[in-house]
User: What shape does this take?
Amino acid sequence: MKRTYCLFIQFYLSILITFVFLGVCSCFIGKASANIYKSRINAQWSGDNSHFWYRNDLAKGHREFVLVDITEGTRRLAFDHKKMAASLSNIGKVQLEAGKLPLEGLKFDLEKSTVSFRALGRSFLCDLKTHELTKIEQPKKLPKEKKSGTKNPRNNKEAKPKSYRPSREISPDGNWRAFIREHNVFVRAREGEEEIQLSEDGKDGNSYQAPYWSPNSKNLFAFRVQPGAVGDVHLIESSPRDGGRANLRTRRYALPGDKFTAHELNRFDVEKKTQTKPEVGIIDFRGPRLRWTQDGRYFRYQKIDRGHQRLRIIEVDTFTGKFRNIIDEVSETFIWTEHPKDLGVPLINWLDETNEIIYLSEEDGWRHLYLVDVKTGKTKNQITRGKFVVRYVDRIDKENRQIWFRASGLNKGQDPYLMHYYRVNFDGSGFTALTDGNGWHNISYSPDRKYIIDQYSRVDMAPVNELRRVSDGSLVCELEKSDITELEASGWKAPEVFRANGRDGKTGIWGIIARPKDFDPKKKYPVLEDMYAGPHDSYVPKQFSAGRRFSSWTDMGFVVVKIDGMGTANRSKAFHDVCWKNLKDAGFPDRILWHKAYAEKNPWYDISRVGIHGGSAGGQSSTGALLFHPEFYKIAVSSCGCHDNRMDKASWNEQWMGYPVGPHYSESSNIDNAHRLRGRLLLIVGELDNNVPPESTLRLADALIKANKDFDMIVVPGAGHGGGGRHGDRRRKDFFRKYLLGIEPPNYNLTN
Assistant: This one.
């Protein structure tokens, strides 16, 4: 009873806290959005796509209605708001303000120069020349007639040929049954009792899986599977909510170099009772996912070698057992196979109707699209080409043989990370830029997909909205520029964008700077770098935000920066390759040059006091800053860090550090280099981190102790992958306040 009561109280308090939190957040969000006007357009298109209207919400609760005529290419107020207010006040016998018209469901007839709408609980028709209103009587809703004999629309479509679905047991001709017994492949005639053993090399720990029949019922294909030797990771829950003893949580967790499950392809001829092994190689990274041709004659699958330096699309002939490589890409560094989801498109896109593949590759030094002929395995043509990066594929239009995609780096004079929209034909012709403005773009299409509403912004520029043609990307008209007058009056300041040359003396390194609210250029400010350099992405914000970025830090008196150095993604292959077998680099040579270049122009920027913090891969890098660059970085806080790449998930680390595990893993290890520590270091880790094993941080602590180094450490009971919650956040801030600002934290034991 006592426990039930406690749980009830705990549940009630959690609900109460949640509502309070949401209330506070909603107030904050409401206040922030109320300070920005004309930033978003919710277009209401006409049925014939000849025009659309939208509403601008303005200061003091005012609003305005805007009409865009596509044919004329014009934007104007939809009507005279004062005259409309007068007409509506008169007919509705209420007093309405011109800036607060309660209009809904507007429908314009441009030929007749009228608009219908709903207001005051009634429907009206307005003559736009005179602004006279006529009440519209709404027709009574008639009961729906019951339809009988309705056919399923699926039945009305032309029948499509069915794709071959390989049988795993009964042969397509129905004469044979295949099965696995004692780890080996057997067949038996459906009408007989005699069993035929086709394999003899299956055994415990290396057994065959259920085979696949070929469509001629003469051949079987089966994978012999050898389980991997993946170890366990252990987590100790020291303080269970229900009390009692600590809990041990154990789960399988593959580390770099672990033996993965291996799949060996075998072919069996039922009539000849023979077994062959196509020389396609063992699949020991990701299980095979077979893709069968419609007639079943061939199956295809993707094979990625451990270390991610070779990728193949293999086709196997089920009649002959012969195979060929449709795609076979080899890289001296890595092929980016682990994060294609971040690209919005698979690496391999099958076009079955034309027997082609759209393939995403960096083989020419930039991330581009290629058209591959499946029959020959030859590249028909490179679809996109140039010193830019394909970021997302939004649509593959098979009928018109076009690709609609996003890319960055094409616009000279702009930040190379800014996202723009494009269209291109499969053969590489018809390359069309749909956007142009200097910013990060987000678009919405008209219903007929002939026009786009393009909104773009930067961290230092509020959103701009334009109407553009899809045919050639040309501008129809400017729609709105955001009004942030109130936001700026409240003290909001945009971050500063800064570019400096990297280690090669020519490549641009881009970052942002957030200053304190009460910034005084006559003072000296310590610098705090918010760090993450996971090679799978880029991390400097590019879009406008009404929030005060990093305000919890800048309000304390820090200048906060965020930088994308070499080794991160979304630039050239060479830029990205810096991380290869070298995660300790983390772009630090570029980052340090960037800091120094900015300090030369801004004396208030104190690079004698530079701190750095980050979590996960950022936790590894922030500690690495002190170990490998102690001459520059003096203070670091590292949360949930991967401090040795041999102790973190295999899929991610082998992508960048390669396979097999070699001396380069040790060279990038914070643990093996712990003796280098000179600055001040705080480590934070949750004891239940299920992403990066906590033992990584604990072993770093052990190495630091053995090296007789001083450091601080917080192990947070019950916490997972993150910064240690409220306690970790407070300790992080106190750490930087003490060692960068010289402010001793209060004695919380006395103040709480």
